[in-house]
Every structure is written in C-alpha cells, then in structure tokens.
Specification:
499 residues, alpha+beta, 3-stranded antiparallel beta sheet, 18 helices
Length: 499
C-alpha cells in the first residue's frame, strides 16, 4: 500500500471496512488482499460494545481523484438517528488507545486518511442540522442569541469554529456540489468555509456560480492555495477587492493582553496581514538560532525564540525613549519593591549568588509592577542591575514622607509616591491596575486644594468620573490609607489599601 502522505501519487481507490461481530471484535482493512493490499486487521476493543453497536457496520470506501485522501462514505445512508449513534459508538470504540495500539502500520495509515475525511462529514452533519434548527426557530426557542452561540454551547467549541459551521450550513442549499462533496467527505471544513465566504462576498457571482467554479478545486488544493486562487479571481473581477479586504481586516483588528495567575501573560488577537508582516520581519531580525555549542537542555524551541525576540523588541523600544510620553513621563516599567529585597546581602562565602531555588529568597518581600503583576525577589534583583531606582521612604502608617513641594501639575516625586501607596485604582470596588489611573485632587484645585501627597488619590477614568460627573465624594484616611466613598444617596463604600 502506498503511504498516504499529501501531494504523493497514490492508488485510485482504497476499500476499508469496519465491522463488529457479536463478540464485540472490530475488524478493519480491505475485504481481500487483491491488488496487493493487505487483508483485514482484527482489533478487540478494551470493553464490549453495546448491542446496538454490534449490529452496526460501516464500510468506508474512498475515491481519490487528486492528491488529497478523500473521506469515507457509507455504503447505505442511515435510516434514523439510532443508526448514526451506532456508527459513532463503533468509531468511538476504535478510537481508544488500546484499540489503536493493536493496529499495524497499514491500518494506522488508513485510519489517519479516513479520520481526516470524517471531519468533513461531521461538518456537513453539524452544518445541515444546525441550519435546519435555526430555520425552524428551535435555536431562538432555546434562548440562544444566535445559531453560532447555540452550537458553541452544545458542542464545546469556540464561537469562531461554530460560526464557521453555521456559515457553511447557510450556503449549502445553494451549492449542491459543495454540499455533496462535504457530505461524502471529499472536501474539508476549511475549504467549504472558503467557498461559503466567497459566496457571501458575491464578487465572483452568486453561490451557484462559486459552487460550479471552485467545488472541484476545493477537493484537490490545500486551503491556502484555494484562497490564493480565489483572491486572484476576485482582483481580476474587481480591482478594489483586495483593498476592500484589507479595510475589513483593519476593522477586525484586536489585541488582548491578559495576566495569568501562573505568572505568565497571555497575548491573543489578530492584526492585518501588512502589520503581521512587519511584526514578523522585526521578530525575525531578533530571533537568531542558538549557537551550535548550546547544550541540548538549553536549546530553545522556535516559539521560545519568538517570545524572546518580542521581549527584546519591547525592551529596545522602551530604552530608545522614542515612545510618546504618558502623564508627562517617558513610558517605563515601574516596579514597587521593598528596600530589603534590593539591599539584602545574599552572597555566599565564595562570592557567588544563591541559586534561584535557595531558601534564602523566601524571607524577601515580593515586588509589584504598576500593572499588578507580582515579581519574585530573584527577578527584581536581576532587573535592578540595569535600572534607575527612586527611593520613597514610608513611615509605619504607610504614609510617604519628603516627596516634594506642591505644584499645579503633579510632579514626578508625588506621582511616584502616590502610585507606591495606592498600588491601583482606589475607586469603590475597582481592581484596575495602576497603569490605568490618573491622580485626582481630593480637595479640588479650583476650590483651593493643594497638589500634595495628602491630597492625591489614584483613580481610573470611570472612577474619576464618579467624582466629577456623578456627585460621589471620597475621603482619604492618611493614617490607614483607607478611602471612604459616599454616593449621592448617602451610601458609603470603603476601599481598603491594596498593599
């Protein structure tokens, strides 16, 4: 049997059957060894199949007209839902680790090919069934806001994946070739979605035209080549097509940076292709491979090298001081750290630093960035090697002392001291980080208030608006750093210190 790798020459037909006898033994392979193909491979599942499963059998026959292995089609369509459930039960038994361990290489190759085809068949089932439920009103009766939300909730997939399935289903009735090839398993979900998107765009004509023009190519070409071919046709038909796509991509741009409890930060989003190319170019320049003599345990994977390249790109940008000023200061990473953490002498008798896992680190206070991220003492001391340090002295009541004279605009010394005291927005029930805050005059400047640490409070914009536009008041206890908020109806809310 020829190996089933993409873009290789393969036999025109492969017959594989999955049968289950009354003893619960599954057999997969060709019915005979004609044309040099191997005979059946018997697999005993780890647990007996259900009676219903033992009565079901699935004959998988794949016609391959091109470089892609095309999915399996059932010899006879199921007559009701129980038939489908029986087929699923049989496949589920074959998908167990013990069952797969009993397959030989030939059977495993066939399994890979047919499993890939089954994804298309599953998409056809999901898309068709969901579309019919949507048209019947069942989705709305279930309280779902959309068919995509309904499907995502019931299948445990992402909203994006569910949206793709719904988009395919809405077009299949007008695209018979695509519907047949998807249901037969000859076409994958990604290719079908590409055709559905092209039909929605309508640059190349109505859905039936798209179906007749590209359905055959969608079974033979990889998705990226299919998209490239369609894009060229769109540009030839409409010179503004690509520019319009770029504008739409720009409108969908997004980037989300989410701190995680594990000490990592998750970055998700999507950016237009031009911006992506610029980012890739910049990261590539800072992403050299590890030297040949790097020990094996220290070698980085490509994702690790890209993460290091991004960190270096950000460090260089901040160090260049070319970024716009924020609140009168050049953007920089601010870390609030106890003096003990920096000044403690932890050197060993031989002059070396303690290992990162040494118990001596446990006695040192952790630090915190203005974004609320906690940093280990080991990390802080490393950062401090190449950092300018501003010293703020606190008394026992957490009150900053000697931070400068009051002025109309908050000077750097007072701003830094207030940030160190507040550690974040001090609004009622607010947990926004320091980086999102601005200083508020508790006793308003226009009413004679001073610009001093006693009159400063870190507030994010929504909480700042509570004071200036919604008649809330705030009182700061200088001894405890507690803030008491009073709403217009007299309700009081206490905001305790965050440090």
């Amino acid at each position: 049997m020829t190996a089933t790798t993409p873009y290789a020459s393969r036999p025109s037909r492969l017959d594989v059957s999955l049968t289950c006898d009354t003893a619960g033994t599954y057999t997969t392979g060709s019915p005979s060894s004609r044309r040099g193909r191997p005979g059946p491979t018997t697999v005993a599942p780890p647990a007996p199949a259900s009676d219903r499963s033992r009565r079901r059998w699935l004959r998988l026959a794949a016609d391959r007209d091109g470089p892609y292995d095309t999915p399996a089609r059932a010899a006879a369509p199921p007559s009701d839902v129980s038939d489908v459930a029986g087929l699923v039960d049989g496949l589920a038994a074959l998908a167990t680790t013990d069952a797969l361990d009993r397959l030989d290489e030939t059977a495993l190759r066939a399994t890979v090919a047919h499993a890939a085809r089954l994804s298309g068949i599953a998409t056809a089932l999901l898309a068709g069934a969901t579309t019919r439920l949507e048209e019947s009103g069942a989705v709305r009766r279930d309280g779902a806001s959309s068919a995509a939300s309904w499907l995502a909730t019931r299948t445990g997939t992402t909203h994006r994946t569910a949206g793709r399935t719904v988009r395919i289903g809405r077009q299949l009735h007008a695209m018979p070739n695509t519907a047949r090839r998807l249901a037969d398993g000859d076409m994958g979900a990604e290719a079908a979605d590409t055709l559905a998107r092209t039909a929605d765009d309508a640059t190349l004509g109505p859905p039936r035209t798209i179906d007749a023009t590209f359905a055959d190519a969608a079974t033979r070409l990889p998705p990226e080549k299919l998209r490239a071919r369609i894009r060229r046709r769109q540009q030839a038909a409409d010179a503004t097509a690509i520019a319009r796509d770029h504008d739409q991509a720009h409108a969908r741009r997004r980037l989300i940076v989410t701190p995680q409890p594990s000490g990592m930060v998750t970055i998700t989003g999507q950016i237009p292709s031009v911006v992506g190319d610029m980012l890739t170019t910049a990261l590539d320049a800072l992403n050299p491979p590890d030297p040949d003599d790097t020990p094996e345990h220290e070698r980085r994977t490509r994702p690790q090298r890209l993460a290091d390249a991004l960190a270096e790109l950000v460090r260089r940008q901040l160090a260049s001081r070319a970024t716009p000023q924020v609140a009168g200061r050049v953007p920089q990473l601010c870390v609030i750290v106890d003096l003990t953490t920096l000044s403690a002498d932890l050197s060993r008798p031989d002059g070396t630093a303690p290992a990162p896992t040494d118990p001596v680190w446990r006695d040192l206070p952790v630090a915190q960035t203005t974004w609320g991220l906690q940093l280990a003492p080991q990390t802080v001391r490393q950062i401090a090697c190449d950092t300018s340090i501003s010293r703020i002295v606190f008394n026992g009541n957490a009150e900053p002392l000697d931070v400068g004279r009051a002025t109309r605009v908050w000077p750097t010394a007072i701003r830094t001291a207030a940030l160190a005291r507040d550690r974040g927005c001090r609004g009622p029930g607010c947990d926004r980080p320091l980086a999102w805050t601005q200083l508020h005059h508790l006793h308003w400047w226009r009413n004679g208030g001073n610009t001093s640490i006693h009159n400063a409070l870190s507030l994010c914009k929504p909480c700042h608006d509570l004071v200036h536009h919604h008649r809330w008041t705030a009182q700061l206890d200088h001894d405890t750093a507690t803030v008491t908020w009073t709403s217009p109806d007299g309700t009081t809310v206490t905001a305790e210190p965050r440090c």
